[in-house]
Specification:
9 helices; alpha/beta; elongated; Alpha/beta knot; about 220 residues; single chain; 7-stranded parallel β-sheet; about 45% helix; 7 strands
C-alpha cells in the first residue's frame, strides 16, 4: 500500500503520456525468458545485448564479469540499462545457482554440437539463455551445467554470429512464440508496481527534493 501511495504521488511529476507508456510497455514485459552473457570482452557487445533485451521485452539480464570486469557502455545501450534490470556476477557458478533458485532451466546457445534448432525449441519452461565470449563461446562449466542446447540454423560458410546478433535473433523469435502460448508469461502485479515506481523515479530530475517533501 505504501508503494502505491508513493507512486500516486510521484506520478504527479511526470506527464500522463509517460505514465501510459509505462503501463503499455509493462504489459509486454516478461521474466519467463532471461539472458545471461558470460565474460564478453567487447564493451559494445554487452551493451547491445542489454538493448536487445529492452527492445524485445526481456526485463532482466545477467552479466558474468569474472575475466574482463564491467562490460556496459551506456552510450551504445542508449539508455536501455535504465529499463532493464542488470544483475552482475563474478563467476558462472554463482549466476547459474541464482537462476536455478529462481526456477530457470539453463539453456546454452552454441552452434557446435547437436543443439535444438531455434524454430524447434519449445519455450514452455522458464528459460535462462546463456551466451558466451566472441572467440571461444561458452565455458566448459556453462556447457556441463546446461539443461539444454540451442542454435540458430546457418547455411553459409561462416559458422558463427556476433553475440549481439545472436541474442537479437533468438529473443525476437522466442518472445514472439511465447506470447502466442497459453502460459502465464507476463510480470506479476507486484512486479509491475515495482517497475512503475522505479521507472517513475528515474523520470524525475529533482527526485531527492520531491521525496523529502513526501516523507516530511
Amino acid at each position: 500500500m505504501e508503494d502505491q501511495a508513493l507512486l500516486k504521488y510521484l506520478e504527479e511529476f511526470i506527464s500522463i503520456e509517460r505514465r501510459e507508456r509505462f503501463l503499455d510497455i509493462l504489459e509486454e514485459r516478461t521474466k519467463f525468458i532471461t539472458v545471461a552473457i558470460e565474460d564478453v570482452f567487447q564493451l559494445h557487445n554487452t551493451s547491445a545485448v542489454i538493448r536487445s533485451c529492452e527492445v524485445f521485452g526481456i526485463q532482466t539480464a545477467h552479466v558474468i564479469e569474472g575475466r574482463f570486469g564491467k562490460r556496459l557502455d551506456k552510450n551504445i545501450a542508449m539508455g536501455a540499462q535504465q529499463w532493464v534490470d542488470v544483475e552482475r556476477y563474478e563467476n558462472t557458478k554463482s549466476c547459474i545457482s541464482n537462476l536455478r533458485r529462481e526456477g530457470y532451466q539453463i539453456v546454452a546457445t552454441t552452434p557446435y554440437n547437436d543443439s535444438c534448432l531455434l524454430e524447434e525449441f519449445e519455450i514452455d519452461k522458464k528459460s535462462a539463455l546463456f551466451f558466451g565470449t566472441e572467440k571461444d563461446g561458452l565455458s566448459e562449466e556453462a556447457m556441463q551445467e546446461a539443461d539444454g542446447f540451442l542454435k540458430i540454423p546457418m547455411v553459409g560458410f561462416t559458422d558463427s554470429l556476433n553475440i549481439s546478433v545472436s541474442v537479437a535473433i533468438i529473443l525476437q523469435h522466442l518472445s514472439t512464440k511465447l506470447k502466442k502460448q497459453g502460459i502465464p508469461w507476463q510480470l506479476s502485479d507486484s512486479e509491475k508496481l515495482e517497475k512503475r515506481l522505479d521507472w517513475t523515479k528515474k523520470s524525475i530530475k529533482s527526485l531527492d527534493e520531491i521525496l523529502s517533501r513526501y516523507s516530511g
